[in-house]
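Reminder to self: tokens first, then the designed residues, so the page reads top to bottom the way the pipeline ran.
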């Protein structure tokens, strides 16, 4: 799973078959994407990870799990 901080877009790739990350599988596997986003969010919070903020707005970048349910910043 790849998460873009600027866009909050979540992408999912099968690196065994697509090392160049050309085919985003997020639409084909929404349950897996949701599960991985929840796992990453949980781990980041466990580690007290600080999310970056946008200079223009001062708003923090969305957690991966929140990026699935909220609109883009």
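Designed residues (73 positions):
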């Amino acid at each position: 799973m790849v998460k873009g901080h600027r866009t909050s877009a979540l992408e999912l790739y099968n690196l065994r078959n697509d090392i160049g990350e050309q085919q985003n599988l997020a639409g084909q596997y929404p349950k897996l994407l949701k599960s991985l986003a929840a796992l990453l969010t949980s781990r980041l919070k466990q580690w007290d990870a600080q999310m970056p903020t946008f200079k223009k707005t001062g708003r923090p970048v969305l957690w991966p799990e929140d990026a699935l349910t909220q609109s883009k910043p």
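The first strand starts at residue 2 and ends at 3.
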